[in-house]
Amino acid sequence: MNVKKVLEEYKEGNLSADEAEKQLRLDYIQTIENHTLFDKSRFNRKGIPEIVFGEGKSPVKTAEIACRAESDIVLISRASPEHYSAVHDRIPEARYAEDAKMIIIGEFPEPTGLIGILAAGTSDIQYAEEARIVAAAMGVRSITSYDVGIAAFHRFLDPLKNMLDENVDAIIVAAGMEGALASVVSSFSNVPVIGLPTAVGYGFGGEGETALRSMLQSCSLGIAAVNIGNGVGAGAFAAMISLRCRRPHDEL
Amino acid sequence: MNVKKVLEEYKEGNLSADEAEKQLRLDYIQTIENHTLFDKSRFNRKGIPEIVFGEGKSPVKTAEIACRAESDIVLISRASPEHYSAVHDRIPEARYAEDAKMIIIGEFPEPTGLIGILAAGTSDIQYAEEARIVAAAMGVRSITSYDVGIAAFHRFLDPLKNMLDENVDAIIVAAGMEGALASVVSSFSNVPVIGLPTAVGYGFGGEGETALRSMLQSCSLGIAAVNIGNGVGAGAFAAMISLRCRRPHDEL
Amino acid sequence: MNVKKVLEEYKEGNLSADEAEKQLRLDYIQTIENHTLFDKSRFNRKGIPEIVFGEGKSPVKTAEIACRAESDIVLISRASPEHYSAVHDRIPEARYAEDAKMIIIGEFPEPTGLIGILAAGTSDIQYAEEARIVAAAMGVRSITSYDVGIAAFHRFLDPLKNMLDENVDAIIVAAGMEGALASVVSSFSNVPVIGLPTAVGYGFGGEGETALRSMLQSCSLGIAAVNIGNGVGAGAFAAMISLRCRRPHDEL
Amino acid sequence: MNVKKVLEEYKEGNLSADEAEKQLRLDYIQTIENHTLFDKSRFNRKGIPEIVFGEGKSPVKTAEIACRAESDIVLISRASPEHYSAVHDRIPEARYAEDAKMIIIGEFPEPTGLIGILAAGTSDIQYAEEARIVAAAMGVRSITSYDVGIAAFHRFLDPLKNMLDENVDAIIVAAGMEGALASVVSSFSNVPVIGLPTAVGYGFGGEGETALRSMLQSCSLGIAAVNIGNGVGAGAFAAMISLRCRRPHDEL
Amino acid sequence: MNVKKVLEEYKEGNLSADEAEKQLRLDYIQTIENHTLFDKSRFNRKGIPEIVFGEGKSPVKTAEIACRAESDIVLISRASPEHYSAVHDRIPEARYAEDAKMIIIGEFPEPTGLIGILAAGTSDIQYAEEARIVAAAMGVRSITSYDVGIAAFHRFLDPLKNMLDENVDAIIVAAGMEGALASVVSSFSNVPVIGLPTAVGYGFGGEGETALRSMLQSCSLGIAAVNIGNGVGAGAFAAMISLRCRRPHDEL
Amino acid sequence: MNVKKVLEEYKEGNLSADEAEKQLRLDYIQTIENHTLFDKSRFNRKGIPEIVFGEGKSPVKTAEIACRAESDIVLISRASPEHYSAVHDRIPEARYAEDAKMIIIGEFPEPTGLIGILAAGTSDIQYAEEARIVAAAMGVRSITSYDVGIAAFHRFLDPLKNMLDENVDAIIVAAGMEGALASVVSSFSNVPVIGLPTAVGYGFGGEGETALRSMLQSCSLGIAAVNIGNGVGAGAFAAMISLRCRRPHDEL
Amino acid sequence: MNVKKVLEEYKEGNLSADEAEKQLRLDYIQTIENHTLFDKSRFNRKGIPEIVFGEGKSPVKTAEIACRAESDIVLISRASPEHYSAVHDRIPEARYAEDAKMIIIGEFPEPTGLIGILAAGTSDIQYAEEARIVAAAMGVRSITSYDVGIAAFHRFLDPLKNMLDENVDAIIVAAGMEGALASVVSSFSNVPVIGLPTAVGYGFGGEGETALRSMLQSCSLGIAAVNIGNGVGAGAFAAMISLRCRRPHDEL
Amino acid sequence: MNVKKVLEEYKEGNLSADEAEKQLRLDYIQTIENHTLFDKSRFNRKGIPEIVFGEGKSPVKTAEIACRAESDIVLISRASPEHYSAVHDRIPEARYAEDAKMIIIGEFPEPTGLIGILAAGTSDIQYAEEARIVAAAMGVRSITSYDVGIAAFHRFLDPLKNMLDENVDAIIVAAGMEGALASVVSSFSNVPVIGLPTAVGYGFGGEGETALRSMLQSCSLGIAAVNIGNGVGAGAFAAMISLRCRRPHDEL
C-alpha cells in the first residue's frame, strides 16, 4: 500500500515533508482508481459484465478482445455467426445466442432478481433477447412474452397479468412502430416500465424514432426510455433495479 | 346559356364555323366552372360549407369576409371573442361556439349521418369540437366523449362500445402526447378511424409531431390521419364518409 | 361455453357464490377475446385478411408463417420471388402478384364495394397495387389509372371523370415527388381522398416526406393520409369505407 | 356487487341462462375497472398522487379541478402565483412551492424511500424540484445537490459521494446544455441514473435536445431518460424504484 | 483616375519604377471595386436598388440608414407603420406600400420588362407584393392575380392564360400550405416559374417548409425556388430575367 | 375536328340544341389537351425533350421505354453502362455521355442560346454535365468551368470573367460542401444565378443540404435554387431563360 | 496545507498509520480542487473571467450574483438596460457595453494578445462585440471590422489584409445567412479562423443553422466553429490561442 | 515582372496611357494570385499539404491525381488498400497508414509544434490518426492516448495530465456517442480544445450528431468543433495553432 509506505519513509526521515507531499499528490492520480468512488466492491455490486459491441469489428479482432478480457463473464453483442466461429475457435466454451445475436462466455450467476420483458412484434425479439441475456448475466431472471403488440390488443393482457402476479421488479417493453405498448402496459401496471424502442417500422418515423418519442411523450407516469435498439442498456438498467430490490439493503 | 346562344347564332349564319369554334373554345376557359368535374350538384353533395380561417385576420376584416360570403352556412374557425364581437355587430344571428373557437352563421341541416369523436385530454377538446361543428354543418351528428386518454385506460371503453353499438360510420380520435389512443381504438373497432393529432405535449416531440407519427405508424389497419390540429379537415373527412354511407347510392 | 357452465354449476350448488364470482372474474381475462368489443362477427365484417410483412423475413420463415395462418385469405406483402418460391413449395395454390410484390393465398370474395386508385408515376404503381389487392381481398373492386401525374396535367382528367361517374366511394392517390396530385384530385372530387405518399423523389425531401407533408397540408378539404409507402393501409382504409357504404346498415 | 346479484337472480329463476350470460357480459365492460389489472390496492401501491398540469389552464378552471379532485394529495405543476391565489381562495390549506412552480394540497406520507437529485445549473433547479416534490408526495425523501455541473467538475464529487454513502436507490440528474453530467455520474455510481434533460442552452440543440440525446447515447450503462423538462415523470419513476426497494416484497 | 496619374508621375520621373509598381499594387486593393468584375455599368444594369431589411431595426435607426443611402431608389422591407412614420419625418417623399409592408423612396423607372405574379391565398399577398415592388423598382411591370389557389382550381386558369397571352418573361408563384400551385402553373406554362414559398400553413410542415419542398421536388421542369418568404429575392430574380429578355443583347 | 362537326350536325338538324350542348361539354374533357393552355406550338417552344429517369429501372425496361418514346430527342438520366448496352442493342444511334451518366437519342438543334456552368469540385461535374446536356438538347450552348471551388479562390475568377464577357444569359453553379460559390458568383455577376446543390460533403449536413440551404439563404440577390442533384432541372430552367432572351419576342 | 499537517501529526504519533491514510484518502476528495489538474496557477493562466448569463434572470437576482462574485473581473452577458440599472445601483463602477449587451465589472489587463474579428452584417455585431469584450477581459486586443459581408465582396478585402499585416493570431468571423464569409476569409488567410454563426436570416435555415452548417462543411481547411450566437465562447477560444502564442512558453 | 515592363513600355512611348491602363487592369485578373493576400510565402507558412479525398474515387484515378500533384507532401485520405496498391505501383515511396486509412507521399518536416490527441473509443482512432498524420505533415508532433472514454472515467486522467505537463498547444478530442469527453477535458485544461465528433453510436443521434451537438453546447469555455469525422480539419486547425505558438512572431 503506497500511502503507508510514504508515511513510513517520511517518519523515518527518508523523505522530506515536500517530497512526501509531492509523492502523495502524484499518488492522487495513480490511485484515483482506488478512490472510494470507484471502489471495487461497489463496482462489483453494479454487476454489469464486460460487453463488447461486435458490429463493425472483424471476427479476428473480436476473438482477440474476447481472449484478453479479464472479466468472468464476457458478452459480445451484435455478433454474426462469423464472429462466433472465430471466437469459438479460441474459446471453445463460448456459446452463441442466435436470437439475440450474442456470444456468451462464462457461467451466469444463480438468479436472485426478477423482471418482465414484453416484445410487441417478432422483429423486436432480438432486442428483447439482448436485454434478457444481459439481465441473466447479472443474476436476474426474466419472464418474457413476445409478439404481443396492441393491434391484437387482448394478446398481451394475460402475459402482463402473469408478470404482475409473479411480482417482477420492472418491465421492459420492446416495441417499434408507434410504440404504444409501453404506454398501455404502464397504465395497467404498478412497476417501473423501461421503454426499449426498436428500429421497426416504415416510411416517416419508421427507424424507431416514433417509438422513442411515444415512450418519452407518454401520458402515463412510470416510464423511462433507453435509446433505439439499446437492449443491452435496457437489460442492465432493469437488472440494477431488481438486484437493488431483492438484496438486503445492508449489502448494497 | 352561352353554348346554345353560339349554336343559335351559328345556325342563323351570324357566326362562321371558325368564329363559332373559337367562341366555343374560349368558352372552355370561361365556363370551366360549369365543367362536369365542377358541376354544382356534385359539389353541393360534397356539402362542405364555406370555412374562413380567422387566426391572423383582424376582426374587422373577418366581419367583412363573413358579410361577403354567398354560402348559406359560414364557419369562422380559430376565432377569438373579438372576432365574434365584430362579426356579431354586422350579422346579429351569428353564434359563437366557445369550446371550438368558432363563429357559426346559418342554420345546420337535419342530421342524416352519424360519427363518433373521442378526445384524449381536455386540451384536445377544441379540435374535437371543431370537427363536431364542421360535421354538424354538413348534416352529420356526432357522439362525443372527451378526456378519455389511455393513461386511465378503462375510461374510454364504455364510450367506445356505445359508439360502435350506435353504428357510427367513422370515429375521429383527437389526441396529443404519444397519440396511442388512435391505435388502441382502431384495434377495438371495425369502422374507419381518423387520427386527429393535436399540439399537446412538452419537450421533445411535444408540438403534436409524436401524435402524428404514431397515427401514421400505427400497427393497426384502418387508420388515416389529418394534420396536427386540423379539426376542420377531420370533421369534413368523417362527415363525407358518413353521408356517403347513409344516402341512397343513386342520389350520390 | 364457460359462462353458462359456471351458472349451471352454481345453480346446482357445485360452486359457492364466491367461487362462482371468482370463476367468472377469471373468465374476464380468459374470455376477453370474446368480449363484445372483439366479437368475431364484428371483427369479420371489418374483413381485413391476415397480412404478413415479408421484407426482412427469410423465405423459409415466411413459408412457415403462411402455413400456420388460420385465416382463409393470407397476403404476404413486400415479398420477393424467393419468398414466393418458398411459399409455393408448401402451398401450391399460392399466387404471386409481381407488380405489388405480394403473395396471395386463398380466393377473394365477390366484390361488393368500389373505389378508385390513381398513381402519379410508374414508380408509384407498386404501392397502388398493394392497395388494390388488399381491397380486392376485402371484397372491393378498384378502378385504377396509373402514370397520371400533374406534370402532364390533362392525363388524369379523363380517368378521374370516369371514377366519379362510376360512383367510387373513395379515391386513393399514390404519389411521390411533391405529391400535388392528391390536392388536385380532391379539389375536383366529392369523395374522400386517401393520400398515399410514396418514397419517390430525390435530393431534399425525396424519400416521400414531401409528398406526405403536401397531403397533410392540403388546401383542399376531404383528404386524409396514410404513412409513406403504406399501400396496405390505404387499401384497407378505403375498402372499409366502401363496404360500409355499400352494405345495408342493419348488416353492419 | 353485480355478479352475485345476477347469480342469485339466475338461481332463483328470474333470469334465463341467456339473459344471465348477456348480463354478465355487459358486466365485463361495466366492471372492467374492477379487473385485477386495475385493482385498487395495486393501483394504490403505485402511489402516484393526482397531478394536474397547470400551464395553459386559467386560474379559475385550475381551482375548480383542484376542488373536484378526490385524491388525498393533489399536485398542480407549472402553476403561476395567479394559479396559486385562485386555488388558495377555495382551498386555504394549499401551499405553493415557488422553486418548483407547484401547488401542493394534502399532507405527504412519512418518507420510507430515498433517492438523490443532482441539478447541473441554476436553471435546472425548477425541474429537479418538481421531481423532489412528486417523490415526497409518494413517500420518498430526496438528497439534493444543485448547481454542480461538470464545467467546475470537482463540485459534484462530494455531493455524489454523500448520496452513494447514504445508499440512495436511484439518482436523478437534471441537466441542460450538453447534459454530460448524467454520463459522468453514472460512470461513478452503482445505482440506476434517471436522466432528466432540461430546455437549458442556446443556439443549435439548445432547447434540451442535446441533453436528451446525450443521455440516450451515453457510453455508460445504467441510464434511462425521461422527456425534456419532465421533472414529474422523473420523480415518479425514481420514487417507484425506491418504494419497491424499501418495502417488504410480500407487501408489493 | 489613379492609374493614369501614376503612369504620368512615373513617366515624369517623380516616381521610381519600384515606387510606381508598389503604388499600382496597392491600387489593386483600393480599386478592386473598379475591377471589370465589379464595373459600375455592369452593376448598374443589374439594376437592383438598395434594399434595407426593416424588421428588428428601430424606426429611428431605419430612418438614419435611409438618409445615408446614396442610391436613387431605396426600399425598406418588412417595415411597420412606425418605421414609416420615422422615415417620413425625415424624407417627406417616402411612400408606404401597406400590403407589402414596404417603404419606397425615389421614383421608379419606366417599365421595360414584364412578369406575372400569382398568389395562392390572401396571406401570400404580402410576399407577392414585395416581389412586385422590387421588380417595379427595377423597371419591370407585373401582371398580378391573387387568391387563386388550387383548392378552387378553376380560379387561376383565366389569370394564367392572360399572363401567357401577354407574353410575360417569368411567373412568380407565391404559395404556402402544400405549395402545389407552382407545379400546376409550370405544367401549364412555357416560361420559367419562380417558386416563392410562404410561411402559411399549420401543424406539421406549416411554416412554409412544405411549400418549399414541393417547389424543389416538383415533377414539372422549369421551376426554381427562393427561400420561404423571400419576396424580395423572387422579384429581383424574375426582373433580372425579364430585363435580359427585353433589352437588345448588345446593351447587356 | 370535333367542334365543327357538331356545329354542322346541329345546323343540319341532326342534333337538338340540348344534344349539341351535351356533345360539346363532353368535348371539353376530351379536347382539353387541345386547350390553348396546352397548345402544341407553345409546348414545343418550351422545348424540353423527353427525359427518362433511369435509376431504379431495369436496363430492359429502360430500353423499352426509349423505343416507345415519340419525341425526336430522348434523354435517359442516371443511366449505367448496363442501361446503355440494353438501349444501344435496340437503338444503335444512342450515345452514352459517361460523365453525365446520360444516354442520348436524337440530334440536338443548332444552339441559339448561351449559358455558363461552374462546378466547384470534381464530384460536382456529373450534375453540371447533366445540366449541360439538357440545355444542349434544348438548343443552348454552355461555357463550362469545373473544379473551381472557393477554397482556391482565385481559380474561378478568370472563368467567370470569361462567361460574363461572352454575355451568358444565366449561370448555373453546381456546388456541394458549404455551397458558398453560388453566393460569391452572384456577388460578382449581373446575370441570374441558378444554384444547383450537390450531395457532396461529409458529416453533419453533408448530403447536400448545407449547399441547398446556403443557396436559399444567400446574402446576394439574383439567386434561385433547384433541388439537390437536380442537374436536369437546372439545365432546363437556365435554357428556358436563354431561349427567351435570344429569340425575337414575337416568336415566343 | 492539509497534507503536511497530517504528515506532521503522524510523525509525532498523534495519528496511527490507518488514521493517517484514511485522512489522506478523504483529503483526495476534499482537495481534489488542489489537484495538479486544477491547480490555481494553471487555471489562472487560462484567464477566462467569471461570466454570468443574464438572459432569463431577473435584474435583482443578477445584481445579487454580481455582488457575490469573487473574481476581479465579472461579465454579465445578454444583459438588458434593466439588468444594468439594478447592477449599477449596487456596484457603481459597473459599465454597460450596449452593443454587446454586456455589463462589465472590474478593470481589464493590459493587452498582450491580438486577434481579428469580422462581422458580416449589422445584426452580427452584437455577437462580435461579445467576443471582443471577453477577449479584452482576458488581455487580448481585437482589430474589428463590421458589416463586411460577401454580397459586397470587395468590402472585406482591405480589413482582412490589415488584420493579416498586423499579424493577428486568430480571426473570428461572425456571420448569419449562408455564413460563406468564414470560408472565404479562411481561403485568403494563414491563421486559424473561428466561425461564429449568428441567428441572422429568414425562412428555411434562418435561425443560424445554415451559417453553422456552412462553417462545419467548409471546403477550406483551418476553420473550427462554436455554437450559434456563442460570442462568449468564440472570444474565449480565440484569446486562449493568442495568449499561448504571445507568451514565452516557459511561462505557460 | 509584368508591371515594370508596362511602365517601361509606357515611358518609352510604346504604349499610350489608355493602353497601359488597360494592360494594367487586365493584369489585375492575371496576377491576382500574386496579390499579397495570396502571396506564396504566407501561404506556405500555413503549411497545409495537398490532401486528396480518396473515398469515391477509383484507385486508378487516385493514382493519377497523386502523380500530377506538385506539392512535396501529398496525403490521400479515406484510402483503401486498393487505392494504396494503385498509387504504390506508380509512386514506390508512397506509404500506407492503415489505422488512418491514409496514403502518404513525401517526407514530413522535423516537428516544431506539439499537440495532444485523445480518442474516446477504439472506433474513434481512425479519425484521431487522420488528425495526427495531417499535423505531422505540417511539422507538429502529437501526444496521443486512445480508448480513454468517460465510462471508465479514470482512464483519461493520467494521459491528460501528461499532455498538460508536456505543454501541448491544443488538444483534439475525438469522440462519438454522447461526446462528453470534450467537455470534461476542457473543464480540466487551460489549452484550446478542438472537438472532433465521430459517427460512432447507434439509434437516435448515433451518426455523430449527438457528439457534435454536445461539443457545440458545452458548458465549458475553450472548445470549438469541426464537422463529424473531419480528422483532417481538426489536425490542420490544431497544427496551425501550435506552429503559430512555437515560431518567433517575426517569422509569421
From TrEMBL, chains A, B, C, D, E, F, G, H:
Superkingdom of the source species: Archaea
Domain PurE, first and last residues per copy: 113-247
Annotated coiled-coil segments of the chain: none
One GO process term, biological-process aspect: 'de novo' IMP biosynthetic process
Signal peptide: none
Pfam family, one: AIRC
MF (Gene Ontology): hydrolase activity
Protein's name according to its UniProt entry: PurE domain-containing protein
